[in-house]
Amino acid sequence: MAIKSVALIGASGTLGPSILTALNNSPFTPFVLNRESSKSTYSDNTKVLTIPDDLNVEQVRKVFSENAIDALIIAMAGSHVEPAKKLIEAAFNSSVQRIIPADFGSCDSADDATVALLPLMEGKQRVRQTLIDLSSRDRPNTAKKLTWTALVPGHFFDYGLGTSLLKFNVAERKAYLLDGGDIKFSASNLDFIARATVAILQKPDETENKLLYVHSHHVTQNEVLSALEKVTGDKFERIEESSKHELSVARPKMLEGDGDATEEIVAVWGVVASDWKGKEGFANELLGLEEEDLEEVVRRVVGGK
C-alpha cells in the first residue's frame, strides 16, 4: 500500500493542529478539509479543500477523488458519529485506502465496561464497526479494500495539565487523588499522538485493520504530583476522592445532558481504567515510539506557573 496524499478533518481542534504539523514534517502531502461555513484559517502553504456543511456523501467523494486522497484522518470530536459515518461512506466510494477514525481519547471504546459507562464510547464503537464492515466489502471504484486503524492514546497529558482532565488544578495548587493516587494509567502528549498517527501511515501494512494503543507516560497521579511540586516549588493540597463515588454522582447528571459531568467521568475513568501497558494492541514499539520524560514535560507545560 502506497500512501501519498492525506486529508485531515478537525485540523483546528485540540489535537488537529499537532497532527497537521506532523503531516507537514512528513513525506506525505497533507490536505485540510474545511466545511463551507468554517472560519478556521491556516498558513498560506496549507492545502485546504472545501466540503459542504452537510457532508453530502457524493460531493465529499468527488473532493476525495479529484485530489487523489489516499488516507483520511478524522480528528473531530468522537461524539460526531453521523458526520464521521458520512465521511467514511464518501471515502469508501472513492479510492481512499486508509481511515483513522476519531477514536483518539482517554478511554477504550473496545472495553465493555467503558462502553456501558459512557455513551460517547458506544458512538466510537459504532464508527469502528462501520469501518470493520466496509473493510470486508468490494468497492465501486477500486479493487483495493478500504482499511482502517484506530488509535487510543489515553488522557491528553500536556493538554490535561491545563484543565481538570488529569484531576489537578495547577493554578490553585490542588490535587484530586483517586483511590489513593497510586493507580497506573496511560497518557500521551499531543505531539506524541500526532507522531503516532503519522507512523501508522508510514507502516500501513503492519497497522492495517487494527486497534492500537500508545502512551507517552505510564504514571500514577502521585508521580505526576511529585513532578508538579518539584517544578513549581509549591506544595499542593491533597484532596482524596473515591472513583466509585465520583462516578456514581456524575453519571446521573451526564445522562441528563450535563457536559461537565461527562468530562468528570472521562477524567476519572481515564485514570482508573486506562492502563495500556502489556495490553493487546499496545503499539509504542511497533510505531517506533518511546515514553517521554515526565518531569521534562511538566516543566515545559507548567514551568513556574
UniProtKB/TrEMBL annotation:
Q: Which UniProt keywords apply?
A: NADP, Oxidoreductase
Looking at the record, the residues that make up the NmrA-like domain are 4-239
Pfam families on file: NmrA (PF05368)
Q: What InterPro entries does the record tag this protein with?
A: NAD(P)-bd_dom_sf, NmrA-like, NmrA/Isoflavone_reductase-like, PCBER-like
A GO MF term:
oxidoreductase activity
**What domain of life does the UniProt record list for this protein's source?**
Eukaryota
Q: Does the keyword Oxidoreductase apply?
A: yes
Q: What is this protein called?
A: Isoflavone reductase family protein
Source organism of this protein record:
Lophiotrema nucula
